[in-house]
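Example record used in the benchmark description.
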Amino acid sequence: MITAVARKLVLLLVQKGKDDLLPVIVTHLDRHSGAKALLPETVRNMIASVKIMTGKKAPDLIWKAPVLTQTKKTHQDIILKTGALNTDPTILLFYQGECQLCEDALIDLANAYDQLSANHVRVIAVSGDDSEKGFRKRISKKT
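Model output (structure tokens):
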């Protein structure tokens, strides 16, 4: 029952932008490791985000090759060492192409980019799309 409730509730909270409520669920799930293990991988990934909350230093990020950026395709692993970043605020957005909330967030960021840039806010968007076509569709989209 705990697994079924967590599966539905985590998805709903993330969709509604209420990630700040996830720590309560994670604390409860940590007491029931069997229930946590039964969660789908997507839900486990969502609750893992509790460790990367707003305003806290993110862990180093590693992308396995091949990695496609706006300018090239590389076959070397890319490591973004957060300790080496400057102290300017950074918005780090992970998105999936078929996610409407993600699409809305990308549009909002694109519309606010000039203002963010003027305030020295770095924007990093990481695509979860599993095809080059999905990635190209997102980076070429005009707002």
